[in-house]
Amino acid sequence: MAVYRLTPMGGRADEPDPDRRILVVEDDLALRELVVTVLEDEGYAVIAARVPLDAAALLEQVRFDLVITDGFSRTGSAVFTSTADVLQAAGATPVALFSAHTLELDAARAAGFRDLITKPVDLETLERQVRALLDT
Known about the structure:
This protein is α/β, with parallel strands linked by helices. Helix content is 40%, strand content 18%. The protein is built from 6 helices and 5 strands, in the order βαβαβααβαβα. Strands 2-1-3-4-5 form a 5-stranded parallel sheet, sandwiched between helices. α1 (29-41) links the parallel β1 and β2.
């Protein structure tokens, strides 16, 4: 299980609350590191997991304010089943689906996701979606 630092690199008064914890679940190392870095630079405390099993274990031990998880599927139709453990372990914590598959937001919401973050990721859009998810 790969776990990254819990505290942001440093912050300014106008940055998001560093006590807001985000769990990023992504198997692609380069993308995982990019998302972690971007969110830490925004002032969030970020933990990363490579696979849903590790994420579910972390969700049992640490309180998160948001989970962003990859779909972990080669086909769009299997995305919702491959992420079921993460959704269940997250409980009331909002979970955003991070996927390259063409999916409908309504279908993602019906499966339990709060939002859909598309790949390839636009960093400004990611930052905006994360802020919106944390403000709800």
